[in-house]
């Protein structure tokens, strides 16, 4: 033992478990009067926000919840969802956020798998949740949230109450002086997220306090977030816990602008009214913004940082977003990595390149976030690193503290995901010589036609370059001669028209003959709630037709 290991032990004075919960406590004591939450006419200062979170924690604690107990919530981007991100772990319980677009059977599976003890549900989702509870084996305490700001002109009225408790009454009964319970260990479970279902096989992804605490710093750095940012909730908080932004905003004592539905008009109004600095979303949100009608737009005179993940934005979309006042940052991550753990770090000298060159660079996923230990592209069988030539395909792999604990009750899947000491994303990509990775496809989405690999992303990029295409997805179709051939599904922009022959002629200018779609289906593309294309449904359509 050397001198640096003698009498220099960990103790309460020099070591405490990392947790994002402390960020809210700091914001509330440092900036108590700073606006924390806006929801319609509701305004919460950091003093009030912190008080309500403590009350929620106290009420849950009074219900007997503690370490390892699951609190499930089915909520929109409203104040209770933000309060759950703090109040639940402050009682040492685990937060499980349910995708609000799921069917009853899927919800019932999650409730049973998570062993839910308490369920908080917005009345908007009461009908489907009532059916799910009838199917589920577990019988949790059900708490209704009755949103007083629910719009009168909502697409559907509120459902009937299905619980035995009311959320506001439940919180109000909690002790405002409750001393929140810190995690025993930063490795303790913080939240549970089920993978989005683009593959049709969701798993329960478990986050720990340490990863979320570090992710907040990564988000702050990656998005150039200043003190007191104003964040608009266009990203569902149930998706990867809103990429950890419910906790991140407290780090800089910012303001959460709640948004129940993603619609162009309220987004533009919020940006102009509250001087929104940041928002996040899939490419579908960008499409909503740039295709908004004139009467849906409200002018604003500042630049808004828009963080996007999933498919790389087409050049035309990036250009139109810039013209509309948005600076797009391309990021990459998965449910298993707390959201975005890779960022397209922009270089100032790239600003002087041509528009196509800039778009090509911005379409890359990027380099590791400062809070990710390592990013690599490797052969998944040999684990050898592929050449950094921008051409050789390999699997994108990640390693670090912002990788999940593992899959709940699924040791086999966890071991497979962590094989060789790396998290296997299942995404295929290339490493460029400057160290930037670029996603080419999911491993299951590569189309092998006549022995040649075809990237569905490459074919989709060609289709996106046609002005009429709003959304597209390319999958393989079995072929007697070639084994597989690409076919495309296309969703057109509102009011746009184009024929299959015209689109095929368009891609003929951009793709080698074997890469061109052999058929094009025009339809509304099936998507997850976060805008990701559900290719397993496209494959099912092919199998049935």
TrEMBL record:
Enzyme class name: ligase
Keywords assigned by UniProt, alphabetized: Fatty acid metabolism, Ligase, Lipid metabolism
A single BP term in Gene Ontology: fatty acid metabolic process
Reactions that this protein is recorded to catalyse: 3-(methylsulfanyl)propanoate + ATP + CoA = 3-(methylsulfanyl)propanoyl-CoA + AMP + diphosphate
TM spans (from-to): none
AMP-binding enzyme C-terminal domain location: 458-532
InterPro entries reported for this sequence: AMP-bd_C (IPR025110), AMP-bd_C_sf (IPR045851), AMP-binding_CS (IPR020845), AMP-dep_synth/lig_dom (IPR000873), ANL_N_sf (IPR042099)
Keyword Ligase: yes
Alphabetized GO MF terms: ligase activity
E.C. numbers: 6.2.1.44
Keyword Lipid metabolism included in the entry's annotation: yes
Domain AMP-dependent synthetase/ligase: residue ranges: 24-408
Family: Belongs to the ATP-dependent AMP-binding enzyme family.
Protein name: 3-methylmercaptopropionyl-CoA ligase
Organism of provenance: Paenochrobactrum gallinarii
């Amino acid at each position: 033992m050397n001198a640096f290991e003698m009498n220099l032990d960990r103790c309460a004075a020099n070591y405490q478990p990392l947790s994002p919960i402390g960020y809210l406590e700091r914001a509330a004591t440092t900036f108590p009067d700073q606006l924390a939450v806006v929801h319609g006419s509701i305004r919460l200062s950091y003093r009030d926000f912190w008080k309500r979170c403590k009350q929620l924690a106290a009420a849950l604690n009074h219900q007997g919840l503690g370490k390892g107990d699951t609190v499930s919530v089915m909520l929109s981007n409203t104040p209770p969802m933000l309060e759950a991100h703090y109040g639940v772990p402050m009682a040492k319980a685990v937060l499980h956020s349910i995708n609000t677009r799921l069917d009853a059977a899927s919800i019932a599976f999650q409730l049973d798998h998570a062993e839910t003890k308490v369920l908080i549900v917005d009345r908007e989702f009461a009908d489907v949740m009532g059916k799910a509870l009838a199917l589920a084996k577990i019988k949790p305490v059900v708490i209704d949230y009755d949103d007083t700001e629910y719009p009168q002109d909502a697409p559907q009225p509120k459902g009937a109450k299905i619980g035995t408790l009311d959320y506001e009454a439940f919180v109000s009964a909690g002790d405002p002086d409750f001393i929140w319970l810190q995690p025993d260990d930063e490795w303790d479970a913080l939240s549970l997220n089920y993978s989005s279902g683009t593959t049709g096989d969701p798993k329960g992804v478990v986050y720990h306090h340490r990863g979320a605490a570090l992710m907040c710093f990564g988000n702050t750095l990656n998005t150039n977030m200043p003190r007191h940012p104003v964040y608009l909730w266009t990203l569902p908080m149930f998706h990867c816990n809103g990429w950890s932004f419910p906790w991140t905003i407290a780090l800089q004592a910012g303001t959460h602008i709640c948004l129940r539905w993603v619609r162009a008009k309220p987004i533009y109004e919020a940006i102009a009214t509250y001087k929104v600095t940041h928002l996040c979303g899939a490419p579908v949100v960008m499409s909503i913004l740039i295709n908004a009608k004139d009467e849906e737009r409200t002018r604003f005179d500042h630049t808004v940082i828009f963080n996007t993940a999933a498919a790389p934005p087409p050049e035309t979309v990036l250009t139109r977003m810039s013209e509309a006042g948005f600076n797009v940052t391309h990021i990459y991550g998965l449910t298993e990595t707390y959201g975005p753990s890779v960022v397209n770090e922009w270089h100032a000298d790239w600003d002087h390149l041509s528009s196509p060159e800039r778009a090509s660079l911005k379409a890359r996923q990027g380099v590791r976030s400062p809070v990710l230990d390592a990013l690599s592209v490797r052969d998944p069988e040999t684990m050898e690193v592929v050449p950094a030539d921008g051409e050789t395909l390999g699997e994108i792999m990640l390693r670090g503290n912002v990788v999940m604990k593992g899959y709940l009750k699924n040791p086999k899947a966890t071991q497979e995901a962590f094989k060789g000491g790396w998290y296997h994303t299942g995404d295929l990509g290339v490493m460029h010589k400057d160290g930037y990775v670029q996603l080419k496809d999911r491993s299951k989405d590569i189309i092998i036609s006549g022995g040649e690999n075809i990237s569905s992303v490459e074919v989709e990029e060609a289709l996106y370059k046609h002005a009429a295409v709003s959304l597209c997805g390319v999958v393989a179709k079995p072929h007697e001669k070639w084994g597989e051939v690409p076919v495309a599904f296309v969703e057109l922009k509102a009011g746009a028209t184009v024929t299959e022959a015209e689109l095929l002629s368009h891609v003929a200018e951009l793709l080698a003959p074997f890469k061109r779609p052999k058929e094009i289906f025009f339809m509304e593309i099936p998507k997850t709630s976060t805008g990701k294309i559900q290719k397993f449904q496209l494959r099912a359509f092919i199998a049935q037709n």
